[in-house]
Amino acid sequence: MAMQSKLSHQNSSRTFTCNVKRIEMTSRKFFASITAEEDKPFDFLRALYEGSIAGAAAGVIVEAVLYPIDTIKTRLQVAHVGGKIILKDLYSGLNGNLIGSLPASAVCVGVYEPAKQALLTSLPEKFSALAHLTAGIIGGAASSLIRVPTEVVKQRMQTGQFASAPNAVRLIIAKEGFKGLYAGYGSFLLRDLPFDAIQFCMYEQLRIGYKIAARRELNDLETAMIGAFAGAITGAITTPLDVIKTRLMVQGSAKQYKGICDCVRSIMREEGSHIFFKGTAPRVLWIGIGGSIFFGVLERTKQLLAKRRPIDMEKSSLLEQDSKL
User: What is the pLDDT of residues 169-181, one digit of tens each?
Assistant: First the structure.
């Protein structure tokens, strides 16, 4: 009896050990699948090409769908104390903005994706957040050369200063010179570089964490929800910077503010510190919904482009066959 009990105990111990090892191997396979992209050979041109197309598609769709909310936000931020908000012509400047938004979004994501992959492959895995933050800053800085003129023209049309984008560009250059198209460039970088860095980093880190918790790939709804959360939080945090940027961009040749510091001092002295959070609600709504659409379209487009890679598909099928054997 004692011998049988001892054998039974040994068998159960072996079974338990085997189960633990099996769980550990499954876990390793899962975590390896999450970081599989880091182990792939880095293809700069493909990352640039796919990122550009996915970014352009996502950016244009977001701008077209949510433009009225952005217009309301801009008018709220420009209005001084007691000023009325006009709720008509909410699509004013949309066409010109779409023309600028397409290449700007393409450059932003097109630069972000290869920069992210390069940093992830060169940095230790525990510094993945730093890689996402840095790549976001690089992508935002590259796209600012297109984003700023687009934003200047868009916001001046939203506030009723011009009737069409070509007319706006012509008159801005005539009155202020070419540098007029880059009015508020410093404040734009002050807002957009932290925004791009925080939003991309938050999205990527939440996505990784969700994958680990769920032990599977995310579906479209889950991607959209994470994108919405990352966008809303980042939008709220950067609202004061957005107010400063908007005031500097729409002032035109009047030059009410001499720069970022003067703008901050003038608002504090004449209107109060609460003005820095003016337009928070529409901004959070706009960027929250925009984040869900942007990252949802971005990931879906990247997946569609990935399916067009015949070599990668062959590799994945071979790996599946090896795993079955």
Answer: 999 999 999 999 9
